[in-house]
Amino acid sequence: MAAVSANKLELLQIADAVAREKSIDRGIVIAAMEDAIAKAARARYGSETDVHAEIDAKKGELRLSRHMLVVEQVENSSNQISLEDARRANPGAQIGDTIADTLPPLEYGRIAAQSAKQVIVQKVREAERDRQYQEFKDRIGDIVNGIVKRVEYGSVIVDLGRGEAIIRRDEMLPREVFRNGDRVRAYIFDVRRETRGPQIFLSRTHPQFMAKLFAQEVPEIYDGIVEIKAVARDPGSRAKIGVISRDSSVDPVGACVGMRGSRVQAVVNELQGEKIDIIPWSPDIATFVVNALAPAEVSKVVIDEDRERIEVVVPDTNNQLSLAIGRRGQNVRLASQLTGWDIDTPSGRLREFHARVHGSSERRRSGRAIAGVGGLHIRGGIGAGRCQGTGRHRRLRRGDRQRVAEPGA
After folding, report:
1. In principle, which of 59, 100, 304, 399 could form an S-S bond with 65, CB 3.0–4.6 Å?
2. In this structure, are residues 98 and 68 in contact, taking their beta carbons and an 8 Å threshold?
3. DSSP per residue over 10-25, as a string?
């Protein structure tokens, strides 16, 4: 084995080369060499012999020693020594001390050299895995760029340069296909330490992947002027994000859209054409729900705070109910995910619901009603969220009689 039979200079050169190649500390490689040489020496002197190897990190000198435990009565001469014999070497020796006996250099055979090589390889591999885990465990929540190394059973193995990651089939966009050598950008959502090495899991469907993409494209988000408060995605099809500005002079929706839609279009292209509705976030849940249901127009909103449930009423004209629900319930489902509230859009019970809301004078045990929301008209599309208000917002306190006015009354 080269590391064992090499001269002093070659020993350090080998340690430096391995450390650079594996991106690990030089001291770890030298310690692995010491363990390997000690193991080979134990094969020569006996497995019970406590042999230690030390390599001078500056000069490369190798020193072998056998450690003996000082005892009153020797039971194992391989690793124990009597107090009388110990005091011949060290007059101050006491029971329980360890005496180091220097051993002469050895010539290692092929089997011993191969065994030592395996020890070095194993130690270096463990150090490399630990380095990868320590490096990537603090990067959960970041976006990384990599190159597709191979595709296995639908999952994609990505080379990140200093490690490998995996994108499982369910974390890729629908109809998305990668080939060897393709560049890919994804979101680190989990890093696990496992026996076969650290497992780095990437995702292109995670809601925060979209948020991080906007942070890269929109300087106002990166600087903290505009904040993304919520994200809801139907990966590969449609998404909604709620944004708010900390500066009254900065329009959060306009900042995310960019000049002629350049900023949002860059995100759309990365997500394979996924349509994005940018919604102005509001602390008032009724206003936020109305914005989130764009491009549908909402006439009235009734909120049940105890159950965190919202019932909305839309006009009977211009297919507003279909717009509110969306294809296969997509629009209302994304709005519910975005707001965190259950949203009910009655279909067959629409007229009954209208009559109950408009004509009821009974007290509502829990919740509040928002009257005149029908005056809010939401403009749809990428810049959804720009609104014009013509109606009145009036909040009915719990226990008050409901009084709901017709829009425009």
Report:
1. 100
2. yes
3. HHHHHHHHHHHHHT--
The residue among 113, 135, 157 that closes a domain is: 135
CATH number for the domain that contains residue 375? 3.30.300.20
Rounded-to-integer distance, Cα 308 and Cα 188, Å: 32
**Single-letter code of the amino acid located at 253:** V
Residue range 181-228, pLDDT digits in tens: 899 999 999 998 887 778 899 999 999 999 999 999 999 998 889 999
The token pair that represents 89 in the structure block: 């070497």
CA angle 332–334–335, rounded 5-degree value: 60
Domain match, 253 and 296 both: no
- Which phi and psi (to 5°) does residue 246 adopt? -85, -5
Q: Which helix (H) or strand (E) holds 8?
A: helix 8-22
Query: Six-digit token pair at 107?
Result: 């010539």
Q: Are 166 and 197 in contact (CB under 8 A)?
A: no
Amino acid at 124: V
Please, what is the average pLDDT of the chain?
76
Give the domain extent around 169: 143-203
Residue 387 has which token pair? 């609104």
